[in-house]
Records
---
Amino acid sequence: MALLGYLAASLTTVSFFPQAIKTVRSGDTSAISLRMYALFTLGISCWGVYGLLTADGPLIVANAITLVPAGLILERKGRALLAGRRRRH
Amino acid sequence: MALLGYLAASLTTVSFFPQAIKTVRSGDTSAISLRMYALFTLGISCWGVYGLLTADGPLIVANAITLVPAGLILERKGRALLAGRRRRH
């Protein structure tokens, strides 16, 4: 049963990497929701702090790993929006 | 401290809704990674089953809610890929 939990945690953590790779490679963030990645990155940061406060190792590790691709996607989306705004003015 | 955990869970759960709304409204899935949503949807399904097996209410609820937008994005991406394949032949 614990194995299913580890499988679930691995799948949801690993899943953000193909999206981050696709986003960084293509530079295309048009279909990516800024709100999703703003809320999600804030959410996993809260999970990480919660893990630190409750001294929960797996929670800290899983969220620290997920923060890398999620933060990268958020940064690319933000950068594309700023570049778009600059072009319009 | 528990409040921070609930905040974290709410943020990561809620975050998928703006992406699903954007994807359904625009129909644009070009920048969306099929692999991400395939792995993520499988992952939260595993989390849900793990929640059922361990009788963990919050785990069942959070993952059942997340399954709706994540599954919707996966379905739209899959549909767009199939439509693209049909056009090429």
Note: The helical segments of chain A are 2-14, 16-26, 34-53, 57-88.
---
Amino acid sequence: MSTSPGWNQPRTSLFTDHYELTMLQAALHSGAAHRKSVFEAFARRLPDGRRYGIVGGTGRLLEGIAAFRFGDAELEFLGRTRVVNQKTLDYLADFRFTGDIWGYAEGEAYFPNSPVLIVESTFAEACILETYILSVLNHDSAIASAASRMITAAGDRPCIEMGSRRTHEESATAAARAAVIAGFDSTSNLEAGLRYGIKTVGTAAHSFTLLHDTERDAFEAQVASLGTGTSLLVDTYDVETAVRTAVDIAGDQLGAVRLDSGDLVEQAQWVRRLLDELGNVNTRIMVTSDLDEFAIAALQSAPVDAYGVGTSLVTGSGAPTASMVYKLVSRTDDNGEFVPVAKTAKNKVSKGGRKYALRRLNEHGTATQELIGVGHRPLDDGNDRPLLQQFIKNGELLPGWTGHEGVLHARQRHAESMAELPAVVHRLHRGEPAIPTLYEEN
Amino acid sequence: MSTSPGWNQPRTSLFTDHYELTMLQAALHSGAAHRKSVFEAFARRLPDGRRYGIVGGTGRLLEGIAAFRFGDAELEFLGRTRVVNQKTLDYLADFRFTGDIWGYAEGEAYFPNSPVLIVESTFAEACILETYILSVLNHDSAIASAASRMITAAGDRPCIEMGSRRTHEESATAAARAAVIAGFDSTSNLEAGLRYGIKTVGTAAHSFTLLHDTERDAFEAQVASLGTGTSLLVDTYDVETAVRTAVDIAGDQLGAVRLDSGDLVEQAQWVRRLLDELGNVNTRIMVTSDLDEFAIAALQSAPVDAYGVGTSLVTGSGAPTASMVYKLVSRTDDNGEFVPVAKTAKNKVSKGGRKYALRRLNEHGTATQELIGVGHRPLDDGNDRPLLQQFIKNGELLPGWTGHEGVLHARQRHAESMAELPAVVHRLHRGEPAIPTLYEEN
């Protein structure tokens, strides 16, 4: 499956825990592998003190599920290392997902126990997708959730994703995608540009200045090659000298200066005054340097035009995983009747039965509850918004969720979902989830 | 480049920040792109309170650098989106790294400012590798460093990597590799088995028990299909009942029981007594459930035989990135003479000049200093161990660092490096780096 002209989704089938396939083998042995099953992905709680989470990765996941096939290389490996027996290898050789998948649209806000993804198929099919589903949702939702808070903190000022170097190269590409879904303006990550059609941008590093004999030589080269609209990095040596040199070379059309160290609030203030004095009222000030949502909030009073965010974004700003789990909640018995199931030993107790979800809204269109029906659809009081969308039907991907189109839709969904939540979501300090999750039992 | 029969390294060239290529364009314009340059990757500090870090990812990085090429898809994207001009595209079309790369062997301990990787080539070649180099080293070193602490806490008991579902699917595969380098016994991640020849293992999930009409049905199916040596998960319903059922079905050859919830210390104690009473003295107890190095240390007094570690491992146990940077420290001038260079603006100051590194050892073979020569090799006092190894010479990969062989060598290096460090590295609580980093200036 290709999502862009330049990229083909590699096979995803071995991004899987060993035990998924040995469980499959044992269930093929007992015959239970073919029981119809409902698995749900959800987070038991939000990261400590967070008010909401943002679903990320759904589009990427759906692209990957289409590529969840076992080819010669995978089957040879599983056979040679005796992970599973021949009967199981035969099953895997023909594997393609044929069931239904529902879930929260990518970009949607979620809360504790929101049924973010629901997989309906045989046990065999739903079981072996577990690890891959959780990997994608846990990573991308952690990044989207952190990004959303940064966007809230930044208000109208654009945020640019620049964290590629601080995380695994593939995580970086997924993180860029998740950041843009949550409202980031663009990314430095070129692979994300190629795969998802996301806008990429860049400035320059200290090494570029140090490479040249003088800062003036470096700025002249950059402006001559990239135009006066470029962003010049002004804190390699002395910031004031650099700003004056930059304006001298690029004139009043200089696009931006970037500050990457020191007291950013204080620097931004005097650099703004200096630029204005020099006539560069349209030259923007971009700040970077280990920003997170709290640092962004602290910079809101300073004359800053754009935030470049790196480490904190790609590591989820203290919550690098969304801690979602994937649980069997219902399966058929020998008569073909669905039976709700749940672990009952102490701790980590889950609620059995297929879930349905509405966001309850008041008369002003503000969310007041996450309402979850167990085994049935909760009654819509007229203002409520149903949360579950169908992504895959009888194994076929439904349109609109993947590729560049999926990113655009998810970004729109994020903006709309945020606009609907109570004002408490704009508070960065720790607290309870913005709305409570309530169950409507049968 | 293929590292295993079943896997081909994809192209890595766009795992790169936009600005690396625009800096290249500007440096091609000024002519400085062809200046010989030395870039170094290092961490200014260890994560808060850590005593040491472990270099991870070097083998994976070297495999990726060999695949750092620009093919039609990459060039078409960069041209269409106007990231760079035609002259730069022409340069990239022919790109292959032709310089030298040195660094700490994978698995080696490192400290603040240890020159973990040194890239010697033209500015053009070394600059565009920056993002990819840092992505790999920052991620894999974060995981290897966390894994090493868990191994220290676990003593002689094996640790099994099980965190795939909590992180990006590709990070998961790299994390499994890094964990094994730091001493983990095996992983649940099948892709890591395929790519790197790492041993994979698995037990079963609660869903497998819930799928069947009774726990007995589930255990019977698992034992019949996977043998009595399998590991049965005993905390879906009542743990005591489950243990008795497991022994009833599998007999005294039952491989292991797994506990995944509750008070693990207390449970392990009475489950051990129960197994012994039932005659299953050789049945092992494996514990999982959000373990980190501190939880492992707390379980050392309990009769536990193996630790399954997930979330904390793959998220670096509080430090998801190693925060390494990559800095130009020396480059030639117009006469071809090397000039040390460094940023001088306040904060984030670096030390210019090519680094050389020794681990100073006392007469007992215990490390006492990280000794770094700036611009020259420090004098070896006879016991010292040189730390820099050459990985790539004139663009050619030297043998032993990559693939399965690289993993084995790195695991060995980790064990030897740890044995040489002072005993303080076995303390989990916060403190200063185990040895100081000292500079020997010219």
Note: Chain B has two domains: 2-128+323-440, 144-318.
---
Amino acid sequence: MIKVGIVGGTGYTGVELLRLLAQHPHVNVAAITSRSEAGVKVCDMYPNLRGHYDTLAFSQPDAQQLGALDAVFFATPHGVAHVLAGELLDKGTRVIDLSADFRLRDADEWSHWYGQPHGAPERLKQAIYGLPEMHRDNIKTAQLIAVPGCYPTAVQLGYLPLLEAGLIDHQQLIADCKSGVTGAGRGAKVGSLLAEASESMKAYGASGHRHLPEISQGLKDIQQSAVGLTFVPHLTPMIRGIHATLYGQLNADPGDLQALFEKRYANEPFVDVMPAGSHPETRSVKGINTCRLAVHRPSGGNTVVVLSVIDNLVKGASGQAIQNLNLMFGFEESTGLTAPALLP
Amino acid sequence: MIKVGIVGGTGYTGVELLRLLAQHPHVNVAAITSRSEAGVKVCDMYPNLRGHYDTLAFSQPDAQQLGALDAVFFATPHGVAHVLAGELLDKGTRVIDLSADFRLRDADEWSHWYGQPHGAPERLKQAIYGLPEMHRDNIKTAQLIAVPGCYPTAVQLGYLPLLEAGLIDHQQLIADCKSGVTGAGRGAKVGSLLAEASESMKAYGASGHRHLPEISQGLKDIQQSAVGLTFVPHLTPMIRGIHATLYGQLNADPGDLQALFEKRYANEPFVDVMPAGSHPETRSVKGINTCRLAVHRPSGGNTVVVLSVIDNLVKGASGQAIQNLNLMFGFEESTGLTAPALLP
Amino acid sequence: MIKVGIVGGTGYTGVELLRLLAQHPHVNVAAITSRSEAGVKVCDMYPNLRGHYDTLAFSQPDAQQLGALDAVFFATPHGVAHVLAGELLDKGTRVIDLSADFRLRDADEWSHWYGQPHGAPERLKQAIYGLPEMHRDNIKTAQLIAVPGCYPTAVQLGYLPLLEAGLIDHQQLIADCKSGVTGAGRGAKVGSLLAEASESMKAYGASGHRHLPEISQGLKDIQQSAVGLTFVPHLTPMIRGIHATLYGQLNADPGDLQALFEKRYANEPFVDVMPAGSHPETRSVKGINTCRLAVHRPSGGNTVVVLSVIDNLVKGASGQAIQNLNLMFGFEESTGLTAPALLP
Amino acid sequence: MIKVGIVGGTGYTGVELLRLLAQHPHVNVAAITSRSEAGVKVCDMYPNLRGHYDTLAFSQPDAQQLGALDAVFFATPHGVAHVLAGELLDKGTRVIDLSADFRLRDADEWSHWYGQPHGAPERLKQAIYGLPEMHRDNIKTAQLIAVPGCYPTAVQLGYLPLLEAGLIDHQQLIADCKSGVTGAGRGAKVGSLLAEASESMKAYGASGHRHLPEISQGLKDIQQSAVGLTFVPHLTPMIRGIHATLYGQLNADPGDLQALFEKRYANEPFVDVMPAGSHPETRSVKGINTCRLAVHRPSGGNTVVVLSVIDNLVKGASGQAIQNLNLMFGFEESTGLTAPALLP
């Protein structure tokens, strides 16, 4: 049994960590922090946790207390983890950061997209990008994990087999992505009201979104050269789920695309290649850590279409964070992450 | 490890049994039947089951095969279980019927409400009404369980402490209930289409609904005399959940209603009395077997209002069925039913 | 053609006034005010108004400018209209207040429920309660209209025929009401987020809600003596609509209830008594000023159930305000309010 | 005042015609047919029509009766209009067909995609494709209109300015489209149930959809040569609305794209080019005949992204049909189509 903490636990990724860790046999949540809600019991804010965490309450963040834990998750807005993560790492606590703070290896690029100086550029080299399907070995020994963003997870897992095999023009990638509203967080914004966001669909950030450089960096790692990516996210009237529709131009005879995908992910516990001709639904992964994929080649032409679905709060955030933790501490990779999706 | 079967597994209560039993350490689903889908793998119909039941397929119902199992769930439309259940009981298989077939003790009343003769009136005496909060001891030794309906569960658990204590006029009960659309089943009906049922609210069956005699029978058991109940169900634009708003007229000084409820349910693993002043949300029980209750006395007047929420597919059907199974086979009552609700 | 203004136009009742008035042949919207959005064009905030109000912009409220108009709507939070309305009335401008500021005749009761002193108690006698089905003649000559709240409209229209006929026990009224989320306004509150309010149902204010005294006052006007009312509102996962389920205990042979309702509303342009046995859906009034009613007597017993649906933003607010304006200025009562509901 | 009929009026495009025509000052709906519902009043099937069509009832289709009308709308499944339309045309009645029956000019291609022989190939030459923004003059004198499909309308209006200007590679078009569930019609299908389609997102027809040849034909008309188009539709959890996200590869310096779009549509009453940087929402056109567009060039690169939203039942079906009717009969083009969208 290890002891973990959660910094910034009032948002959706925080409560999702609690929900999932309630089922984890080897993890004890010893602390959860929130400046604004210190003193409030987590089950008073999140009634689904009644009976699971009846005494755990939000506390002020305290480096001393957190530094005594085995691992600490950061479920904070960007910019918050930079300094505190370093303090904890210095005390030997392993850090799993769900925010964007350590995802980009280039501090200047981070500053450009997030509009503030990077607070811990010296830590960037140490950070491991926590996508197990690409970096499993490094994750096992990592001290600091940058958990991938939700869109980046869905997009990278979809393009991975094609780019590794060199089958598509890496200058012509188009990722049309649809996300449920929890992707925008639990902040009280007019645009996220049920009365505003339901019964409607819209794109946003068409001219540039913060997940673009993260995706590009990840795809470049696979491709070994810079990629040309157009990324358009859309707000979809549902709570959870990301549907990434990925387009690529074939630059060679691709052979059996279905077999390519199945082989690439044959041993991955959380990537499910659906049968040929499938159209995965986001609800098929509601509440679980699985990414389901399908690959199509319309009319046998030059365009390949990959459909990739995840739950943005699980494989796109808290579930993937726990998958990383399992790898870091030598637990079975799927520990605590085995329940089926809630359907219907 | 016991072996169980599911008869009529293509509907929502069937897939919900599979979802929940995937987490049950002592149960193996050995057979699932469907006349219309025989030969189809369950994970092809329900993609959330991929990775959990990769070989299980629907089969034709076969009394020989089912009779060799320890227990069989019926997740069938009404009228189907009457005969087959008897055959299985004769072979020593215990039967947990999620349909309405054995809920009413009076065969004539059943015929009146369901518009057909009762197919097994001789079994009615044997059937135990599977509401553990009322009939736990009888359930433990039962051979045949009639799992309560969804509305009846929410309503009975809400009125139970008040009627047991003799605090309200049992001739003046009003149950205003709101249900998600899965309560109408998975049948392809125009009225259940997203385009018809979302963004709208309506009552139905205001002049008489099949759950009325079941609720009345249960409340009469508590009260020891016939009750006067008005029951109006409403179709609510959500997938899961029942919210019962229960009204009663106090006929005595009720004392501390909050304490009454807390005491009555202190040892119940699946009834959660919320703090005074609470308004439980259906989402707080999404996917779980808990009933959450709150009791109010507006303006300190003569009317008491109980708010009762359940997930109609779990505590209102498949979860309660498993709770019964656990009791019948001597497992810990909450085995397989311990995950927190999915929120948000 | 008359000139009107809207004070506080950024909320849902403001944009709804603009949407409806765009179809009104005799009304020109000359001014719309908002302190926070002054200078912003209304069609930039509400894209559905593009092509209809391409130049109208929010302005600072200015008593001089507003006082030169024929009528001014207040679509403000409570407490705002008290002073400004008086200034406008003194200049001869007729005021139609959609807020709660002039609904209760008793200033002390207003202060009790709204937690602040009433800012214009001397105006209360002048205010006419704008429910045309009860006060049509007074509305025609009114200078100051208090437009009824959304719940009060649905509840009063449902009970009206029964109370007028003296058929039900006025001490035992129960109004179980369900509202879409626009009832909570356009404020950025966590509880109104799609991620929080969709896929869920909950009661609120079970121990006391601000619409209770307003409904009670209205029912008392009908009954000619104080009523005993239990009112429980519920938040429903939809944008628009109120469904009021009203319970009463018959204290006499009611005769033909259907005929009673049909006769009472035979000449009302905005009350539609549905055929016997109906269950009106809120979507059947989406976007329109109609209240649809159905009356049931379950099992021929002593309880009568009235189902009453309105669009909370139209008959429950802006549409009813325009209906009042039509009466005040001698236009045909349904002018600008004749489009069918949007269904599906 | 002209007299019109509707053949096949029970589906969503039928009721939408009735809803819109209720506001049309020059049109009288003299007949509406339905084999299955003959004798039923339209307001009994669609309660939003109560008070608007209190006597109109569905009747058996009768060529004699329909042939006496000025115009007849077909709101039928494909294959139904072929023969009856011809009979009516022979009687001098003008036909506006909302189905796919006359959209493709090549009868063989029609047969290929719709899986049956074309029933009236000799009429194809006569049919005018009813997209006023391309074919206004021909529509005015047409006897037979093929109203464009919903996806084709959104896609063609988005690509039109770019293809006319020769700015994008017409071999590399990608149309990622999202539709509300009414696009699937009012048929009772499991996949369209609220419990199945809400809280989820999925693609469908990724390998080939019937609207593909229609879009390709239309784009070819603009481009004057065959185009290469990948079209992936998605089912979105909302009732109405299409959001088309269109990608093109610039093959020349495009100059000012915003100005290009604004100029092209400057005189179009039903195309609204949003300000630069906009992201149109489908709800901004809920219930109305407008297509709203925005054009983006992410990071100033070679990809152009057009966002195009319509209401699939209005500009994508019944509203466009009425727009055609207005042109054919010399009415002001926007007659009966002037109400603002319902928002929120």
Note: Chain C has two domains: 2-125, 151-312.
---
Amino acid sequence: MALIVHKYGGTSMGSTERIRNVAKRVAKWARAGHQMVVVPSAMSGETNRLLGLAKELSPEIASDGVLRELDMIASTGEQVSVGLLSIALQAEGLQAVSYAGWQVPIATDSSYTKARIQSIDDKRVRADLAAGKVVVITGFQGVDDKGNITTLGRGGSDTSAVAVAAAMKADECLIYTDVDGVYTTDPRIVPEARRLHTVSFEEMLEMASLGSKVLQIRSVEFAGKYRVPTRVLSSFTPWDIDLAEEAKSGTLITFEEDEKMEQAVVAGIAFNRDEAKITVAGVPDKPGIAFQILGPVAEANIDVDVIIQNVSHDGKTDFSFTVHRNDYARTVDLLKNKVLQQMGAKEVTGDNKICKVSIVGIGMRSHVGVAAKMFRCLSEEGINIQMITTSEIKTSVVIDEKYMELAVRALHKAFDLEQQPA
Amino acid sequence: MALIVHKYGGTSMGSTERIRNVAKRVAKWARAGHQMVVVPSAMSGETNRLLGLAKELSPEIASDGVLRELDMIASTGEQVSVGLLSIALQAEGLQAVSYAGWQVPIATDSSYTKARIQSIDDKRVRADLAAGKVVVITGFQGVDDKGNITTLGRGGSDTSAVAVAAAMKADECLIYTDVDGVYTTDPRIVPEARRLHTVSFEEMLEMASLGSKVLQIRSVEFAGKYRVPTRVLSSFTPWDIDLAEEAKSGTLITFEEDEKMEQAVVAGIAFNRDEAKITVAGVPDKPGIAFQILGPVAEANIDVDVIIQNVSHDGKTDFSFTVHRNDYARTVDLLKNKVLQQMGAKEVTGDNKICKVSIVGIGMRSHVGVAAKMFRCLSEEGINIQMITTSEIKTSVVIDEKYMELAVRALHKAFDLEQQPA
């Protein structure tokens, strides 16, 4: 008997018919003797519908007072889902009980619409499991120390599921999604893209953060931090397929380097066209400039991705970074109005027609020349590289967005990703 | 400066446009210097939509496990409403904050789908009011001592509003509805029906319990128990009508008998065609029969309204009562299968084509012959009376439902209700 966490996305919960199928799948696992915790998302379209109503009432959603109410409203989508799924499970003859985040409780900080989980009290859930119940917990949400409802941001249900699995030391967390696993890159761009049977936690982290969008990045961080065996698998298989077959489908995120894993140097090609780059040019090169520029950006709750500062000339340097494209105009305004004069920089420029393409692979650690091979490949395709950042297991370039597909296809081929590794 | 509670029904909250109008009306009161607490219902249609989804998954909703989930689901309708209204108030330039029942908290018992309020902790709300905020609280729901969400049953938002007003010793509770006050009877049946400027708490209690449906009965009980000045008024007046005019519109429920009130003997005619009558015939007349019959009925959570037991003949008596029409078949089954043989009664009969018509008036206390006048009036119309019950301030008869309109019209005229009292 194992303790298993299932997570189902909005598409799987999209109608009562689909919810019934989720219940049948969960029932199959429960009847096989497993203790089951299920974390469903809101029914597809529901979160957008709710936030749409809010937007009609207040196009301006920046204040903390409004953000608090948005969480109050948006969190109801998952609350409806857990109630419906619990009823469907009971109709299957199981005992089931649902909990909203505040009931577990799943404690978070108070950052409305993008809260972070701080702790999960599993006493109530554990007692229910011991009593033979399936426990259904809302994804996407928690409660702060003053009893306010918070949400974790888009895709937060993945994080909820993995965090619950971590808190309960679950044997495995199964994330049912509309893809059947993690691929070497997006098959819509490279038809030869191949599903990975396993992917290391570090690779998955890079793939997710670089825009592969299979899992929310924070869920992968949780999985890594607490070593939660997490599997991404398809929600489109029939609910009654053989359990043993289902249990080994999809892609398993692994943590042990000595585990038998595919030993390709590069595991996959990630890309992201949701970013924009911003450069503060002619910055006096003295201590503290990074903080002077990014401090106000962080205060405005704008997430920064790539950051580059190169060597200076004549005591001046250029400082570049990327933000989400939605934050582009706001960030440029902020820098022009608040930062530019104060630090005596020359100008703020930017471009929101860029994309980021990355090669990711734990094997890069021990293989020299991988980045060089990437640059040569792009050069052969005539693609100009605007920015470069590297880490131990990935190399990212920022290029003009119009070259994105070309770059991804060329790199996928250059690193032989369509071939199953030996 | 007064502390005022406003309650808005589902129709008033039916669209973002209407929610904006509610916000403007509340803002008008707040700007006049009042401390404002607002209790909105779910957007019209939302509760039915949610329960409809649940029903698709489980036509059988009797178990406690399912009822708990229904409350989990249904309570989200009001949670969305408070969030949206709070955002609309902020868009009007006010500070506003919303709370779900569990956040206040509004403590209830654990009777899912028909919970009763036990206590309301107003500390958090009071602190917000002192800080100049409008507080928006979900109607219809609370939380039990184990942290489970409960709902108060249909119309429960009225009760929530009055209970909050009672707990906070509000100066007045204004219930905005789709009628502009309490009438001598339903104007759809008697066009001459007249709006009452005031109605005594006891009369209102009888009017509501007898099916006038303006307010949920429990809200009137609360209003009476805690002497909450409660006003029923129209939500269809423009939001910007003069506040002084709005404040004295509708019908005020009064508690002091020496208050200047309309001194008609009969205040109004109530009626109800949602009931069915059941008779257990040939019951051995010995102590405990009422409990033997109604004990199992109460255990099955079936509400009983009128109860009649007349004198016995030959040691046998007939015991009659009425239940909601929806509970009719279930009650008859219960009595036939569990009660009949056990107590040696002859048979169980019933009729669900009945209605109840009542005259209600605090003036009846000191006026003899009021009931006699009612019976004469019905007799002149050729209407046979099946059951009679009386209290100090009302007399009810059960008659064939086909005579309902005729009876109501005849009684309205017989008691001169179309005339403004002197």
Note: Chain B has twelve helices and 20 strands.
